């Protein structure tokens, strides 16, 4: 991933926060038919002294777990993103030197994919996934809500994957290469464009803050 130094993000805390807030990763593999990409919701676990571990499950019918077993894979996580109009830069009115661009946040995780074809392991995983994503519901659904025989059938239809990470790298392209006045103009413009663009405005303001 091409990453100029002013967009490079290596601090563990913001990288981990993005994985927590945007857990749907694009699992990119290279199999017999060439490159493949599968959207998969992941759980991320930090590890002292390491890049952490990603865990997930895929349908047993999906060949990716066979084709990518024990192979190096890439998982891309996309955060907020939005188009940036040059009209938002105060500097444009001064010299006209401005062009459109796109702001975005992305994290790339790399590691070797390990297959976990084990019902007990899968039950623990789906329980954790359920607890994580049902936490905001008024009455959270629980794995135990499903009939036991139905649940067993569902578990037999999936396969677990685990990716001990060798690297976790982020690119925060949020107008850091512009003046404070231009960044303020970008944030103001974004807040007129809807919810996701407003979220990008928050990131522009955070990225401009001293580390």
UniProtKB/TrEMBL annotation:
Entry superkingdom: Bacteria
Pfam families assigned to the protein according to its UniProt record, in alphabetical order: FMN_bind_2
Family annotation (InterPro entries): Split_barrel_FMN-bd, TR_PAI2-type
Gene3D superfamilies reported for this sequence: Electron Transport, Fmn-binding Protein, Chain A
Stored SUPFAM superfamilies: FMN-binding split barrel
Name of the protein in its database record: FMN-binding negative transcriptional regulator
Source species: Piscinibacter gummiphilus
């Amino acid at each position: 991933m091409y990453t100029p130094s002013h967009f490079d993000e290596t601090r563990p805390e913001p990288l981990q926060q993005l994985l927590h807030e945007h857990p749907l990763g694009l699992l990119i593999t290279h199999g017999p038919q060439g490159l493949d990409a599968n959207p998969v919701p992941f759980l991320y676990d930090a590890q002292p002294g390491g890049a952490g571990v990603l865990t997930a499950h895929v349908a047993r019918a999906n060949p990716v777990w066979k084709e990518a077993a024990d192979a190096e894979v890439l998982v891309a996580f996309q955060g907020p993103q939005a188009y940036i109009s040059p009209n938002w830069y105060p500097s444009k009115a001064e010299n006209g030197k401005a062009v459109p661009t796109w702001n975005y946040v992305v994290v790339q995780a790399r590691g070797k994919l390990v297959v976990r074809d084990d019902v007990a392991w899968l039950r623990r995983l789906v329980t954790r996934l359920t607890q994580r994503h049902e936490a905001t519901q008024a009455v959270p659904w629980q794995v135990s809500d499903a009939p036991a025989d139905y649940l067993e059938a569902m578990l037999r239809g999936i396969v677990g994957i685990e990716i001990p990470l060798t690297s976790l790298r982020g690119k925060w392209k949020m107008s850091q290469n512009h003046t404070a006045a231009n960044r303020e103009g970008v944030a103001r413009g974004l807040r007129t464009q809807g919810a996701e663009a407003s979220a990008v405005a928050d990131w522009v303001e955070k990225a401009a803050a001293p580390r």
